[in-house]
């Protein structure tokens, strides 16, 4: 089998290559330890088919070529890799990689090893797939799924739906991995109600940078648990997460309400998220929002073709339209009630009254709503293009200043086309635990603001990056205390400023769990 020999040959090459790069002051003992570990060597790859993928991400702006890709088939493989790095006088960095939907090189390393978490799916039977448990009927009913860190949320959804269940808090996009979103926060239109995805975890298995496999939760090894949640991959590799599940609705009323007045728009959004825990009827299940700018291409996919003309006219008239997007779930047997519930929700809202649009879709079609868009963009060659995104959390008290200074001034006036813009409030109070790693604006409610930019050419990338900097400078000058989300490619000093008063806790946790600073170098926090 010549192909097999080739593979063996190339892995030997990788081992030699790795040794020459990382073992600059190597002692013979550690090198022979690696050679002795044949298991490790056969899982390292520089397969020319996949290697280029490991040197880029969804952003397509930052590129770093690793020494090799490690394809683990078990948790013990990951343990062995981390132990090996730790054993060297000059340890090599390890970058866990989910689906690399990061946009600033967070899952890359230029002189280390990319740890391919999605390869774990092959050992489904070892508990690294998705295992939906029976619901625990004693005490409060808790259903959950045990999920491998490299699984995608779409797979968690499918396995859960088979049992009539669903995760409670989902992001807009279902093809990111569980380990990837839990290393950031996982925000979406359900977060106002259940919190971000990191607030919806019962238990984790984490392999720390020191090489300890730790099972952790609020009660057990809680320091490792809170550190890993939103931990940017700095403290450990998440190999398993226990995700709580609730009953899955069958169908969804999915609505968009158009506004020409930001004050009315944000006031209505805030009204919808200030729900009462006890009054289900009066509660939306999902609330987001977005801008419709007088810029090509106008995204009119949601609206019936017969309405495209009048939506376009509205946008042309005002230059900027705000869309409040909301959803109300229902089951087949409550079909008769759902229209009443929706009418109740819309009562007193101040959208432009003839501009309300509604679709009735299956639950899966709703939560997987980005997928058809992805297919369309892929077919137009507009998916694997540069994405100079800017993702911000803005304190509620300053969102109107943000609208005036950023949307209506910088964005509208510069009129650089490409991408979409999301803006929606979420509840911090009672939904976030400050022991988790991320920092947030210091208010009970803050806004998620996403500039999901798509650049067809590098000339546009530059323009958009300049605009991103202008937006940050505007916030700084106006004293709007924003928090950046999904950031990377920052200097150490910028990270210290990002965490502010929480920096000491962050750095102490690094010393405790990853003292040799091996994990997730792509953020540039400790390198
Ligand atoms: C189209 C699109 C829509 C999106 N929508 C949303 C949204 O609505 N809400 C939201 O919050 N985010 C959203 N995101 C951002 C997304 O959640 C993050 O980019 C996330 O990191 C993607 O997961 P991934 O598996 O691709 O992670 P990767 O990019 O592979 O990794 C992200 C970081 O986590 C680390 N990491 C990965 N796996 C593990 C692990 N198992 N253990 C420890 N560390 C690990 C990596 O080293 C890296 O630092 C969106 C992204 C895209 C492309
Ligand atoms: C990352 O930093 C480099 C060097 O500072 C810069 O050239 C590049 O544009 C940055 N990329 C992003 C996505 O910010
Ligand atoms: C990671 O592993 C998966 C599954 O084996 C494979 O499809 C993918 O190409 C690998 N990724 C990289 C960057 O090698
Ligand atoms: C993971 O494994 C399961 C079970 O073998 C399979 O159904 C699923 O399609 C796999 N997912 C991926 C992303 O390969
Ligand atoms: C926008 O809405 C707010 C709140 O309903 C209202 O007070 C204000 O007058 C409106 N502005 C315009 C220009 O209509
Ligand atoms: C933005 O530019 C496009 C042309 O690229 C133009 O059609 C549109 O009217 C402009 N919008 C604004 C608000 O200036
Ligand atoms: C709900 O209705 C759909 C379509 O009418 C049907 O396929 C499905 O089986 C029903 N589900 C339940 C739980 O009754």
Automatic annotation (TrEMBL):
Residues 62-248 form the FAD-binding PCMH-type domain. InterPro entries: Cytok_DH_C_sf, Cytokinin_DH_FAD/cytokin-bd, FAD-bd_PCMH, FAD-bd_PCMH-like_sf, FAD-bd_PCMH_sub1, FAD-bd_PCMH_sub2, FAD-linked_Oxase-like_C, FAD-linked_Oxidoreductases_BP. Keywords: FAD, Flavoprotein, Oxidoreductase, Signal. GO terms for molecular function: cytokinin dehydrogenase activity; FAD binding; oxidoreductase activity. The keyword ATP-binding does not apply. GO terms for biological process: cytokinin metabolic process. Its EC number is 1.5.99.12. Residues 1-26 form the signal peptide. PANTHER family: CYTOKININ DEHYDROGENASE, GULONOLACTONE OXIDASE. Belongs to the oxygen-dependent FAD-linked oxidoreductase family. This is cytokinin dehydrogenase. It comes from Glycine max (Soybean). The gene is LOC100793158.
């Amino acid at each position: 089998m010549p192909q097999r020999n080739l593979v063996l040959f190339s892995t030997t090459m990788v081992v030699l290559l790795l040794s020459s790069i990382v073992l600059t002051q190597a002692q013979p003992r550690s090198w022979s330890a690696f050679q002795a570990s044949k298991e490790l060597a056969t899982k390292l790859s520089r397969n020319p088919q996949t290697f280029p993928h490991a040197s880029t991400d969804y952003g397509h702006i930052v590129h770093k070529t690793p020494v090799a890709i490690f394809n683990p088939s078990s948790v013990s493989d990951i343990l062995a890799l981390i132990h090996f790095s730790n054993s060297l006088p000059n340890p090599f960095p390890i970058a866990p990689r989910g689906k690399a939907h990061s946009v600033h090189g967070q899952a890359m390393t230029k002189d280390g090893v990319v740890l391919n978490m999605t390869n774990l799916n092959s050992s489904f039977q070892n508990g690294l797939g998705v295992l939906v448990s029976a619901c625990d009927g004693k005490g409060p009913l808790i259903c959950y799924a045990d999920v491998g860190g490299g699984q995608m949320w779409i797979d968690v959804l499918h396995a859960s739906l088979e049992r009539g269940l669903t995760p409670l808090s989902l992001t807009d996009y279902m093809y990111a991995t569980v380990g990837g979103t839990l290393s950031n926060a996982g925000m979406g239109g359900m977060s106002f109600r259940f919190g971000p995805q990191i607030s919806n975890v019962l238990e984790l298995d984490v392999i720390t940078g020191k090489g300890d496999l730790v099972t952790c939760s609020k009660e057990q090894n809680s320091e490792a648990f809170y550190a890993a949640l939103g931990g940017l991959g700095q403290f450990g590799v998440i190999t398993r997460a226990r995700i709580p599940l609730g009953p899955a609705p069958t169908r969804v009323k999915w609505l968009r309400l158009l506004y020409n007045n930001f004050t009315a728009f944000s006031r209505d959004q805030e009204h919808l998220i200030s729900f009462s825990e006890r009054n289900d009827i009066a509660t939306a299940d999902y609330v987001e929002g977005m801008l419709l700018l007088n810029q090509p291409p106008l995204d009119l996919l949601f609206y019936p073709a017969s309405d495209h003309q009048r939506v376009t006219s509205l946008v042309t008239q005002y230059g900027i339209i705000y869309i409040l997007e909301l959803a109300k779930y229902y089951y087949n047997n409550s079909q008769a009630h759902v229209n009443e519930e929706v009418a109740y929700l819309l009562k007193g809202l101040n959208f432009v009254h003839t501009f309300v649009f509604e679709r009735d879709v299956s639950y899966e079609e709703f939560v997987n709503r980005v997928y058809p868009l992805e297919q369309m963009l892929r077919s137009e060659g507009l998916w694997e293009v540069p994405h100079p995104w800017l993702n911000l959390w803005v304190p509620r008290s300053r969102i109107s200043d943000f609208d005036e200074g950023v949307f209506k001034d910088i964005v509208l006036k510069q009129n650089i086309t490409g991408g979409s813009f999301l803006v929606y409030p979420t509840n911090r109070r009672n939904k976030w635990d400050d022991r988790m790693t991320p920092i947030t604006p210091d208010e009970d409610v803050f806004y998620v603001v996403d500039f999901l930019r798509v650049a067809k050419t590098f000339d546009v990338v530059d323009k958009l990056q300049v605009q991103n900097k202008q937006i940050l400078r505007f916030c700084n000058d106006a004293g709007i205390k924003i928090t950046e989300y999904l950031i990377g490619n920052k200097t150490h000093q910028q990270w210290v400023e990002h965490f502010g008063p929480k920096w000491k806790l962050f750095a102490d946790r690094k010393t405790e769990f990853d003292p040799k600073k091996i994990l997730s170098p792509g953020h540039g926090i400790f390198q």
